[in-house]
């Protein structure tokens, strides 16, 4: 099926039904040729005439090994996919009146997360009337960001979203540097609440109603 789709994407050989084409590539003299002449050249070289730019006037073609061309394209696509960065977001939850022991516990985890190359979404959850302490929550998050300035940079300043005030931090270490590789794949998150670390896999990054 993949080969058939590629055939539809690229016209080759006798399927190129225009009077003339522009040839480009190696081992030929670039220029405009009658299509019949270009087909004969491809046959003499033991390759295929492949239309790579059908919307040009005249269409642009190359004389290449079509099967090898398809293989290289497929290989290139796989390499690009493998290199694509997978974003890992880990969450850390505070209460508006977090004590020093709890704060330092979460600070240590945040440092580890950032060193691994993950982003950190820290938030203060306001329960009931505790929303009256939103300024206190903002101060806590700014202190948190300041204590992590060697490990992460602020991507989003504290913002109130419903009952949560959120700050986003991204790692300062470049991937492949001193940072340790993350054991999580893209789309996973880790919540740190109280003195416990919970791993939630295969869930949305920003779940509702499941906060610890």
Any chance you could write out the topology, listing elements then pairs?
Elements: H1 2-9, E1 20-24, E2 31-34, H2 35-45, E3 48-53, E4 60-64, H3 66-83, E5 89-94, H4 100-115, E6 119-125, H5 134-147, E7 152-161, E8 164-171, E9 189-193, E10 196-200
Parallel strand pairs: 1-4, 5-6, 5-9
Antiparallel strand pairs: 1-2, 3-4, 6-8, 7-8, 9-10
Task: Kindly describe this structure.
The protein is of the alpha/beta class. 32% of the residues lie in helices and 29% in strands. The strands form two sheets. It has a six-stranded mixed sheet, covered by helices on one side. It is rod-shaped. 22% of the residues are buried. The N terminus and C terminus are likely disordered.
Write down the secondary-structure element order: HEEHEEHEHEHEEEE
Mean pLDDT: 79
Number of strands: 10
**Net shape:** rod-shaped
What proportion of the residues is helical, as a percent range? 25-40%
Query: For the report, how would you describe the main beta sheet?
Result: 6 strands, mixed
Rg, Å, rounded: 28 Å
Low-confidence stretches: 1-6, 175-189, 194-212
Main-sheet strand order equals 7-8-6-5-9-10
Question: Based on helices, strands and strand pairing, what is the structural class?
Answer: alpha/beta
Strand content is 25-35%
Given the structure, what is the number of helices?
A: 5
What distance separates the N and C termini? Answer: 47 Å
């Amino acid at each position: 099926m993949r080969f058939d789709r590629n055939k539809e994407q690229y016209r080759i050989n006798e399927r190129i039904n225009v009077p003339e084409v522009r040839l480009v590539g190696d081992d030929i003299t670039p220029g405009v040729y009658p299509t019949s002449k270009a087909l004969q050249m491809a046959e003499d070289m033991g390759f295929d005439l492949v239309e790579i730019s059908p919307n040009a006037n005249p269409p642009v073609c190359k004389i290449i090994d079509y099967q090898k061309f398809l293989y290289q394209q497929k290989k290139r696509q796989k390499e690009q996919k493998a290199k694509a960065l997978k974003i890992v977001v880990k969450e850390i939850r505070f209460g508006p009146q977090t004590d020093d022991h709890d704060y330092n516990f979460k600070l240590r985890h945040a440092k580890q997360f950032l060193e691994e190359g993950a982003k950190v979404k820290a938030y203060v959850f306001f329960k009931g009337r505790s929303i009256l302490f939103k300024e206190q929550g903002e101060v806590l998050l700014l202190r948190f960001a300041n204590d992590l300035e060697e490990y992460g940079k602020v991507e989003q300043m504290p913002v109130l979203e419903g009952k949560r005030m959120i700050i986003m931090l991204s790692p300062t270490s470049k991937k492949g540097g001193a940072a340790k590789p993350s054991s999580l794949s893209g789309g996973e998150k880790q919540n740190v609440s109280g003195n416990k670390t919970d791993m939630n896999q295969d869930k949305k990054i920003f779940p509702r109603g499941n906060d610890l």
